[in-house]
Amino acid sequence: MSNEKADQMIRSSSLEEMSSVDLDSAYGPSGFHGLVRSSNILFYSLFASLGGFLFGYDQGVISGVLVMRDFETRFPRVGGNGDLQGWVVSIMQLGAFVGALINSPLADRLSRRYSIAVACVAFLIGSVLQAGAIDNSMLFIGRFIGGIGLGQISMGVPLWIGEIAPPNLRGSAVTLQQFAIASGIMISFWLDYGTQYIGGIGEGQSQLAWRLPFALRVIPAITLLIGCFFILPFSPRWLVKVRREHEALAVLSRLRKLPENHPIVQAEILQIKAGARFDALTIKEKFPNAKTSAQIAYQQYKELFMQKHLAKRLFVACFLQFLQQFTGVNAIIYYAPKMFKSIGLSGNSVSLLATGVVGIINVVATVPAIGIVDNFGRRIVLMVGALFMSLSHFIIATLYAIYEHSWAEHLSAGWAAAAFVWFFVFNFAYSVGCIAWIYPTEIFPLGVRAQAMGIAISVNWISNFVIGLITPIMLNHIKFGTFYFFFAFTMVLFGWVMFFLPETKGVPMEEMDKLWGGSEGKETADRMARIQNELKCESRNVPIYSKTSSYSDDLDIEMQEQY
Ligand code: BGC
């Protein structure tokens, strides 16, 4: 779209028209090309994705540490086949479940960016406790506290990226977080592999072999912490939410590399303001007695569950998180060596190598997602991914069922099964691996976005926790049935996306309501029209309401009181 056209729309008599400005095309191309052109969005998103790196690193590092000789000797109930092993892995996910939930009020109150800083501090405390652990309780407490930080990060980083990116790049920018998660997993797999040789893999193994991988993650965590104060800007949407609109405009213009008075920047800031005021006004009109921030937060949570269109979005976001985990990806991430051994790839080095390949494929296959999610849309990418993931599970399960007792004589069947494990990971990485993070960042109105994301991401972690616990049991008892089990969930993912999931590609965040039936009611439409009218006049410096009847004056006071 030309600047003149955008300009003309801003001056148009109806802000309804302006909000339908096709910001997608106004900002230029999507995918790689778009990211490279918006180099600052690329830089900020990559920097914030250090959080994703920490997340992946933490998920990956533990499996290698648990089997290190020195670790096993010091922590016999945790290392090797210790009875507390499952718990030491999953206590981190439980911490993350809590972290994702508590980050919502922090992200609203302190800002998205400072909530990430708080998360880094929790993560650092957890890392130091784990690296220096001298007994089980230190290890468990360290993993739990570190997990809280990770849960916060896993919610705060995509929320922040989703709010700074323009609509055409939102998907690609959030995808960088998945790329960072996958890189963290891969690097920690290989780092464990390398550090186990410090002092030799036998009796003489040094404690550094496992303390070092635990300790090294403080480097990216400290970098991210410093970046939260000196590099990452505030989210312009959060600034508008807390009525720091001048700052919001300045940040937006910096992010878009356009002057503050540029029509595109003006169109976007007005759209953000309209969305924020709409939320605030809705709360004010519906809950006139809610005055304190605690009362308002309570109403917001209540709204999420009681308002049909919000509850629908919450269900969709949570179900997507649940299905992401029940594709079985972490069954592979956590238990790949065990799986590869069970399908006849004998010898430690072969199964470790096969696991290393999982790590590499997971990273490599995330790259195309950066180009495709904003071009082809969320739905089609999810459906193709789900279809191929189901196919992989089905083939692995069937090969397993046929050759269960004769892998040794059918080596090629074992390799075929391994190839389909890799194919599964490939299809996970570009599809639901990324889109499960993108979708919740974009479908909720600003007023409840942080709360909703906290709930959705906590569902991801609790499902992750369940998978971590049930997979070894399933592998021991129902064996090939494990893969039929995950096959069923990938099919559900396919069907659900096909029949129920709305496309969100390129839809401006403030226009999402229309997709979910949020602005259908006459009352709601009237409210939006009044806000739009007021904003339009403000933008031209025309007073429309008398001092006493202006929505923004009332709201200014109300919103400032809240923060
Ligand atoms: C999932 C993680 C998983 C990772 C694998 C993420 O999107 O949330 O649980 O381990 O992808 O790359």
UniProtKB/TrEMBL annotation:
Gene Ontology CC entries for this record: membrane
Keywords associated with the record: Membrane, Transmembrane, Transmembrane helix, Transport
Major facilitator superfamily (MFS) profile domain residues: 44-505
Primary localization: membrane
Compartment list: Membrane
Molecular function GO terms recorded: carbohydrate:proton symporter activity
Membrane-spanning ranges: 41-64, 84-102, 114-134, 140-161, 173-191, 214-234, 314-337, 349-373, 380-403, 415-440, 452-475, 481-501
Pfam families with a match to the protein in the record: Sugar_tr
UniProt topology in membrane: Multi-pass membrane protein
InterPro entries, per database record: MFS_dom, MFS_sugar_transport-like, MFS_Sugar_Transporters, MFS_trans_sf, Sugar/inositol_transpt, Sugar_transporter_CS
Family, as annotated: Belongs to the major facilitator superfamily. Sugar transporter (TC 2.A.1.1) family.
Official protein name in the record: Major facilitator superfamily (MFS) profile domain-containing protein
Organism encoding this protein: Lipomyces starkeyi NRRL Y-11557
